[in-house]
């Protein structure tokens, strides 16, 4: 019988290994922590003393590491390459970026080995029940060898083609699953806040046409207030970045994913990365207006808190809108007329400055100066202290600085600064050319810039200046 090993016994790896052992497959295992190894040895698995020993003694090696750097270290992918895989098969169960998987596959093949992608769709409960959906990519002969070995862990296995088609397919499937869970969590919070019976809402959803094993499990956890991980929030947030990369290349807008990514990132920044993705409910609860009921039952809002939350929500929404517009921009027309004297590239560069100034003004030393109390005061100061020619020149320079792939760079900048805003309190001081102000107040000016110029960007590609009659 073919000797098989599995490296990585985390939330998903351990139940997969249990199902393989239960099927009668002789399985050798290794993990960085000892507890899951001990549990599986009690069921009949064999423990290797090191990843190297496991690779040396097994013909087929399954790996379940989502951390690409850790996976390289465990596999010994370095100066010596992957020579230990000569004549062996490496099967990647975890979801990585398609680019990473393709490069790993090339290295394995160069070492004389075989490589199969086998990411699985599902979380801990389907893994425990052997009801995962497996996706395979690789040569036909290699996939033929791997498929029956993985079958005990899966309800269905689908062949996707050549590497990295399985990874790309898995990430696209996750796009729906991630946004569905975020929306379901939002629905649960809405039911709570609207004063209806949450359990009635749950019963209706569980019986409805959109019900699934995922929705039922997540609603049960939300009802119980159970945020323990079926899949880790920080891993899911990492997956949203990989899905966004695919969307950028495909030039497909993903506004629902953009919001989910921000929710997950902010929740992770609060220290909840090891919880289930439904832990975003706490972040959602804080995004909403802070209010209390007055004596007559009317809502009495704290205007200052509510206003700051509204500004953050506006900035997030404006940023999502900007990114959707940029993904739809026709790259071949970036030198067309944009706004005024600007080309479309210049207008794009100017708009990205709405993000870049957040970075630069936050990083600038606080050297005193006048205090700007509001966005209105900021725009009043800017109007008297700037001239149109210098603004136009900065836009052109910013367009040039976006480089050879301006749309991709603009989206990278947007995502980077969103992360910075998410992890900031809002009380930080930004040192603008016109005075000092709180970050939360400055965000209002950036949200307005993004809103206005996203509309300009969306209109510009459709605008064609009238042709002049060559005869006058």
UniProtKB/TrEMBL annotation:
InterPro entries for this protein: 6-PGluconate_DH-like_C_sf, 6PGD_dom2, 6PGDH_NADP-bd, DinB/YfiT-like, HIBADH-like_NADP-bd, HIBADH-related_NP60_sf, MDMPI_metal-binding, NAD(P)-bd_dom_sf
Alphabetical list of Pfam families matching this protein: MDMPI_N (PF11716), NAD_binding_11 (PF14833), NAD_binding_2 (PF03446)
Ranges for domain 6-phosphogluconate dehydrogenase NADP-binding: 4-158
Domain of life: Bacteria
The Mycothiol-dependent maleylpyruvate isomerase metal-binding domain, residue ranges: 339-458
Membrane spanning residue stretches: none
3-hydroxyisobutyrate dehydrogenase-like NAD-binding domain location: 166-282
Name of the molecule in the record: NAD(P)-dependent oxidoreductase
